[in-house]
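Cross-posting from the modeling subforum.

Setting up a comparison between two proteins and wanted a second pair of eyes on the formatting. Protein 1 (sequence, then structure tokens):
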Amino acid sequence: MTVSQESAPTDPSVPTGPTAPGPCRRSVVAAVGAVGIAAALTACGSGDDGGSQPVDSATAAGGDALARTSDIPEGGGKIFADQGVVVTQPKKGEFKAFTATCTHQGCKVTKVEGGTIDCPCHGSKFSIEDGSVKNPPATQPLAAKQIKVSGDSITLA
């Protein structure tokens, strides 16, 4: 007894069987990992504790609040590393902004303390009032950045 088997015409340029195109194991693992990270980040940021929330650089540049005025201590300041900006309040109600990049060798400043914006790389310090050099080796002041204060909201201009 003979059994006939019909076969569909095959196109030699289309692989079949185990060599058929599809996601490779590395792609599947990376995609699963990315979905997991996105889910975790979404879960972490979904609560509203009434406090100030971090703002990414795209959002801040678009005019949404960078900070509340109450977030910036009088006689001090706060560094927004993602936006590359330092916002200071030298006197009550007076807000200034400067680049967060040291003019000496391009390091990022890391703290605002004692009336200065401080670079950890070589010890340069800059005034919270005008960005001028208070302690070398930097010789150039921090560049001013434009901000807008409206009510209790500070945005990048």
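Protein 2 (same layout):
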Amino acid sequence: MKQKILFAIILLSTLSIKAQEKLPTEALPIAFVDVDSVLVYYNLVKDVNQRLATESRILQQAIDTKQAQHDSDIDNFTKRINSNDFASAERAQLEYERIQKQEKSIEDLKNAHQNKQVNQKAELFNRVNDSLLVNLKEYNKAADYQVIFTNKGMDNILLAKDQYNITDKIIRQMNSRYKKELPE
């Protein structure tokens, strides 16, 4: 029995070696693009992210200013209530309602800011995808790859030889075609 197992192992090893000898030594007609690198080095992404960060900072400052005023109004209202400084209960109620509206306005502004950021990032993602696809098609006219994979993190490729990575070539092509946008 041990002889048969040993013979099978030797036979399989021989077949494996023969199969490896028949493999082509040239590169396969496949490639991959590391999308994370595109998102870091593509000038469009850099420019849009810089503009979004500036817009976000300005809007956050406006929110912070309104929030500080609101906090001050609450403190003032609390002091006036505690010192019985309102002329009437109706006047106190009106001031309370004004503060409530002010708070809702700030929350609405925060929500609008968050929604705007989500929409702008989705728009950027779509622009990058469109640009990447156009550039890949153009690049592949000469490269003639049969398949070009993506490598976003570890989603679609777990291991690949560097010779199949065309990310830098694609980023250079995308950046050479990108025309810097004027600020809005």
